Amino acid sequence: PSFLNQPMFRKSEVKQNEDGTYVIALSALGFHKDELTIETENDVLIVNGEIKRELPNFISSKKINRSWELTNLDAKSVDAVLEDGILTLTFGVKETSKSKKNTIKVR
């Protein structure tokens, strides 16, 4: 349905800045920064989080489990900011080495 393309229904958005860095904006409404775990493994950026609130006669639970496979992710450049229910991840990519041509002789 077309309403899913409206900004209020998007759960995350990825864009590339003019300087080559990337930004992922992810809805994290209700989460505190200490309830989120952000990790990188190889070229994968992983966000996990869980909220569990117990009230009289009611238990509320909410989870975030998202990952993005990003070629040449520069794990050391990842920056995370949680503000107004939006988790913003900014990061760069490693420069790829140019492939070198190598000729193999047949024996």
Topology, pairings included?
Blueprint: E1 12-16, E2 22-27, E3 36-41, E4 44-55, E5 58-69, E6 79-83, E7 86-91
Antiparallel strand pairs: 1-2, 2-7, 3-4, 4-5, 6-7
Keywords:
107 residues, mainly beta, 4-stranded antiparallel β-sheet, 3-stranded antiparallel β-sheet, 49% strand
Per DSSP E runs of 2 or more residues, the count of β-strands stands at 7
User: Alpha-carbon distance between the termini?
Assistant: 61 Å
Strand order of the largest sheet: 1-2-7-6
What is the ordering of alpha helices and beta strands? Answer: EEEEEEE
Characterise the protein shown here.
It is built from no helices and 7 strands. It has strands spanning 12-16, 22-27, 36-41, 44-55, 58-69, 79-83, 86-91. The strands form 2 sheets. It has a 4-stranded antiparallel sheet, with no helix packed on it. The chain has a 3-stranded antiparallel sheet with strand order 3-4-5, with no helix packed on it. The relative contact order is 0.22. The model is unreliable at 1-9 (pLDDT under 50).
